[in-house]
Amino acid sequence: MSRREEIIQAATKLFAQKGYYATSMQEIAEQSGMAKGSIYNYFKSKEEIAVCIFRYHYEKLFRKMAEVNEDETLSPREKFEKQLSIQIEEFYRHKELVQMHMGEQAVKVNDEVHHLVFLIRAKTLNWYRQAIQDIYGERVKNFALDCATILNGMLKEYMFYMAIDQKELQVTKVAPFLLRRLDAIVESMTERESPLLTIEIMKDYLCVEKTNEQTKRQRIIDCIDEILETLEERDRNESDIIRSLEMLKQEFSQKEEARKFIVEALLLYLESLQVPLLRELKAAIQHYFRT
């Protein structure tokens, strides 16, 4: 685990236990086992840590969702059940994140965190909506947004019981149980009624993938910074690697549109030099060009 990850995990626990505003950088440093001055080598402020907490955990979750989606041996329902199970297991494993999110501490930090939380909610809604349409077909199309919202609401309540109230539920039973309830909800939808949530009403949520490019770029930049940090810790002369990483960083931080042929050439060169932590960087870049 890198030092950045250690700081993120320490801050997540403290924010959940004490609240964002009641937690100091000094406490985060102590919880991370480092001096307060050293923590500023990794994060400029407490606000930046809060942003990274949500980005780190949710991008890790969405990568796992994407891996399940690529499994062609599973039916749409099997994929969705597996994805929901992974989501529940991840939240149960990281209860501090659920406490922080459900306690609505995150949205009060600053505009950047507020926007990131919106992106996460929107991406989750889009994921549920598409999965529901894949499972139930054309008959549910007009009600897919309502069904996704109802499912998300049910899931949040059960997560609240497990993470906040410490109720001992069988985690493996939650996803199939909720999907059976969703079956009944879909069955109850008829052509005689209209959906509450329409595409027009929810257009800001449905267009989130276009506005999400900045988040994807930032994930790539964070990966590059983490590799640079590792190289510094090894205290070796890696000027060629550092130059290549800085060029790659410029493609995603300064260019209006990253040039794929340059990015692929730089990745190939870095791979030949056996650069550490390159796998996560490659995955982030592949996700950027895939969507």
TrEMBL record:
UniProt keyword annotations, A-Z:
DNA-binding, Transcription, Transcription regulation
One Gene Ontology term of the biological-process aspect is: negative regulation of DNA-templated transcription
* Known DNA-binding region: 24-43
PANTHER family hit by this protein: ACREF/ENVCD OPERON REPRESSOR-RELATED, TRANSCRIPTIONAL REGULATOR, TETR FAMILY
- Enumerate the spans annotated as HTH tetR-type domain: 1-61
Q: What species is this protein from?
A: Thermaerobacillus caldiproteolyticus
* GO molecular-function terms, A-Z: DNA binding
Name the record gives this protein: AcrR family transcriptional regulator
Q: Which SUPFAM superfamilies match?
A: Homeodomain-like
Q: Name one Pfam family in it.
A: TetR_N
